[in-house]
Amino acid sequence: MVQRREANEKHLVAVLAIAFVLGIAVAAAVFLAWKSGVLAPGFHGALSALVFIVCPPFVLSFAIDQSTNSAMAVALVAGAMIFGNAFLYAGVAAGGYFLVTSTRHKRRS
After folding, report:
1. Which range of residues forms the domain containing residue 62?
2. Residue 1 lies in a domain
3. 33: CB partners within 8 A, 6+ apart
4. 3 part of a folded domain
5. Where does the pLDDT of residue 72 fall: very low under 50, low under 70, confident under 90, or very high at 90 and above?
6. CB-CB neighbours of 77 under 10 Å
7. For residue range 34-52, what is the model confidence (pLDDT) as tens digits?
8. Measured in whole angstroms, how far is the alpha carbon of residue 57 from the centre of its chain?
């Protein structure tokens, strides 16, 4: 029983780590696309509106303009977008892991 619990904990940690890194990668790609001008800030384009599905913290693009010269403002928005999306992905993955493991155990009983 103890080995099974340890294996489940290892699987949970792996799922959370993968989801966290995936959230960072997606948000970093969205941020770089936005700063390079490919994405318009906020809801000012069809692609920008679709980006909110994969990166909800992109709403912070309303906070600063693309041409902002303040490195501190850009760093704060980038950090908030990237880590916000990473924790969002990890939270959704934790919820999904809970649902999968709880329904799987009910089927075995």
Report:
1. 8-108
2. no
3. 39
4. no
5. confident
6. 20
7. 888 888 776 777 787 788 8
8. 8
Residue 61 buriedness (CB in 10 A; 0-12 / 13-18 / 19+): buried
- Record the pTM: 0.82
The answer to the question of residue 84 being in a domain is yes
- Per DSSP, helices labelled H in the chain are 2-35, 46-54, 71-108
Q: Which two tokens stand for residue 61?
A: 């693009």
Report the greatest alpha carbon distance in the chain. Answer: 61
76 burial via Cβ count (<10 Å: 0-12, 13-18, 19+): middle
| CA atoms of 84 and 24, how far apart (whole Å) | 9
List all residues 6 or more positions away from 68 whose beta carbon is below 8 Å from its beta carbon.
Answer: 74
CA distance 80 to 55: 12
The count of structural domains within the chain is 1
Distance between CA atoms of residues 86 and 71, nearest Å = 22
